[in-house]
Hints:
Layout: H1 2-20, E1 30-37, E2 40-45, E3 53-57, E4 61-68, E5 73-78, E6 89-96, E7 98-100, E8 109-110, E9 128-130, H2 153-158, E10 168-171, H3 177-186, E11 193-200, H4 204-216, E12 223-228, H5 234-252, E13 257-263, H6 265-278, H7 292-300, E14 314-322, H8 331-339, E15 342-346, H9 348-352, E16 365-366, H10 375-380, H11 384-398, H12 406-422, H13 432-443, H14 455-469, H15 471-478, H16 485-500
Parallel strand pairs: 8-12, 10-14, 10-15, 11-12, 11-13, 13-14
Antiparallel strand pairs: 1-2, 1-6, 2-5, 3-4, 3-6, 4-5, 7-9, 15-16
Helix pairs in contact: 5-6, 7-8, 11-12, 12-13, 14-15, 14-16
Amino acid sequence: MANINNLNSLSQIIKDEIDRVEHKIDTSSVGQVVSVGDCIATIYGLEEAMYGELIVFPGPSYGMVMNIEENSIGVALFGNDTNIKEGDLCQRTKEVVSIPVGDALLGRVINAIGTPIDGLGKIETTTTRPVELQAPQIMDRDKVNEPLETGIKAIDSMIPIGKGQRELIIGDRQTGKTAIAIDTIINQKDKNVYCVYCAIGQKNSSIAQIMNKLKQHDALKYTCIVNSSASEPSPMQYIAPYSAVSIAEYWMHQGKDVLIVYDDLSKHAVAYRTLLLLLRRSPGREAYPGDIFYLHSRLLERACKLSKELGGGSITALPIVETQAGDISAYIPTNIISITDGQLFLNTDLFNIGQRPAIDSNLSVSRVGSSAQTKIMKEVSKNLRMQLASYHEMLDFSRFGSDLDKSTQKILNHGAILLEVLKQKQYMPLKMSQEIIDIYAVQSGLLDDVNANSVHHILKLLDNAIRTHHNYIYEHIENDKKFTDEDKNEINELINTIKKNIDEEDLTKYGG
Length: 512
């Protein structure tokens, strides 16, 4: 009987001690790790957690709520998950995931959550912006009518890009997709356009090369690089483009023009698929989750041109997508084609025969069109696409016959010269005035009787002659937005003179 009384008194003591504990764990704000692996943590508790909310773990480590189920929460972890173990407590921050923004990011390389990874020290900014934000409403937008100059003749003449447009760059691996984007960034020097380059799933060595090239061309000072490399976990690759566009939106809402490159969204879709399969979500078509379209639409819709009442800033997006064996009818490419305002399709066959950039004029389109072109460029390039289409058609036809009439031969000669003029070396974007002169030179027909191998030599001599003795022609185009008949006659005379003296290198005789 004494033992029973002792046990009863002991249990009463324990109960009293439990009742005296004033602090109780609040499961609405604190949770416990049930399982962790592959940068995914399953949490018990966090009953009031919001989708996209930032969760803090011991360490500290951070994650974002991605799944909200009846008895658990799925959290995608940013960084290494080895420091987190089962039984650890985690806590709500009651804030969505945000990233530092501001001019301090220019010239810097950061990861997907805003931590500098370039070894240049801390980024001095106190302004942050949520990575997930609603895109501007239709009434808050203005029409796209101002050109964003890429410095690439084939694009600015046939597939123009406007400030606020979303132009997809699509093609197989190693066809020059990134080269077009980097040249466009380099060409924004002294044009008051800020640039954001977002690398998703790329090699760190490739990003280092891009950074060095931008630095060599003095383009890094107006560019921010957001890098989520192939070695980083899928949550970091998933969040990278949203972080990048939040950085760009900060400048857009200040009335600035911004160019953003997503390189590439194919790898972004794969990272999202990996992430959600680990979260046990049901796979859909080609094992991609059912909301894969919404994934990219809510990202790309944030690129636009704001109305004048909201400052008139813009974000021009150049998403990159990789195809397999030229198949643009695959799931992810067709999704993004339907979201964007046009696409630049890079043809592998053109690339292999030396046509760089390898832009396929038949499959490439800009839905903004000539409204994003200057009046002069519109005038000199109005028949380019038709001429290239006729050339390719006649080229196929000529393979079946040996005797060609004069009109067919003329189309073939002009098309071959035109393709030669549209060739351009990487990291050498041109000013709009030089592009217009080159396009006019080939459209005038004065180059049709020269050897294709001599075309670029003649254009270089023409450029030197204009800069040396007729620089007012460039000034008319750049400053006055005019290309007069007198200017055209001067160009014609210079071309004829150069053709007669093609072997001469003394440029003073072309001065007139």
